[in-house]
Write a structure and sequence with these properties.
Elements (H helix, E strand, L loop, with lengths): L8 E6 L3 H12 L4 E7 L2 H7 L7 E4 L8 H11 L4 E6 L4 H10 L3 E4 L4 H12 L4 E2 L1 H12 L5 H5 L7 H11 L4 H8 L3 H15 L4 H10 L18
Helix pairs in contact: 2-3, 4-6, 8-10, 8-11, 9-10
């Protein structure tokens, strides 16, 4: 759905804990523009309901009875590619995050994170943008930064990207949206979109989430925003 359309973001919640579901409903429905269309307590129930109550975004716990949350996300993305998925979990673990992202999740949020992080993740997902909890993103970066013997592998694959495309993908790994990237680089939002399309084509991915994962796995991350040179100096 497009930002500013005036429509609510329709959300499905999938968690087998009643208390968690009630808490999520209270948090999200307090926000303007977010509507809980249905809840499910298992992956199987979610798959049964999803066609009757189609969501824009599905929020999924990894630990579910029967089919787990990662397998559910794979099924949803295969059968309903237009639905974006967020994993909400207690696992502050980069390996689970990588599995979820590879399954098709666009967001990975830790349950004890601030409430506004989940809200931001829902709004980002509805716009096709990635949000990964800071603690997990940091662990992903640490994992791919060591050991030193992996540096050669991480550095491979950058050759086809222009310097500006590298700037854009580094900003994407920090969670900046297209408007924010345009402001930082002093370019138009349309130009940002063109750069992102070119990045997708060159690295062989089809969405923002996998582009971010590709960059994180290769250590292509932004350590200092000031290292990015805009097209013209700020006034």
């Amino acid at each position: 759905m497009s930002e500013g359309s005036g429509d609510s973001i329709n959300v499905m919640l999938v968690d087998d804990h009643e208390v968690v579901l009630e808490g999520l409903i209270r948090i999200l429905e307090k926000q303007g523009g977010i509507k809980i269309v249905t809840v499910a307590r298992s992956a199987e129930e979610a798959l049964e309901k999803i066609a009757r109550f189609p969501p824009d975004v599905i929020i999924v716990d990894i630990q579910l009875p029967g089919m787990n949350g990662i397998e559910l996300i794979k099924r949803v993305k295969r059968e309903y590619p237009e639905i974006e998925a967020i994993t909400l979990t207690v696992f502050d673990d980069e390996q689970f995050a990588k599995q979820a992202i590879k399954a098709g999740a666009i967001g990975y949020v830790i349950k004890d994170a601030a409430k506004d992080e989940l809200v931001k993740a829902v709004r980002a997902a509805a716009k096709g943008e990635t949000l990964i909890s800071t603690s997990v993103a940091r662990k992903l970066i640490e994992e791919i930064s060591e050991p030193a013997g992996r540096k050669k592998k991480k550095e491979e694959g950058f050759e086809e990207l222009s310097q500006r495309e590298m700037d854009v993908i580094k900003l994407m790994t920090k969670g900046y949206n297209n408007r924010q990237i345009a402001d930082i680089l002093f370019i138009s939002e349309h130009t940002v979109k063109v750069h992102i399309r070119n990045i997708f084509r060159k690295i062989g991915v089809v969405d923002r989430t996998n582009a971010v994962l590709w960059a994180l796995e290769r250590g292509l991350v932004l350590k200092d925003k000031d290292s990015i040179k805009p097209d013209k100096p700020a006034i």
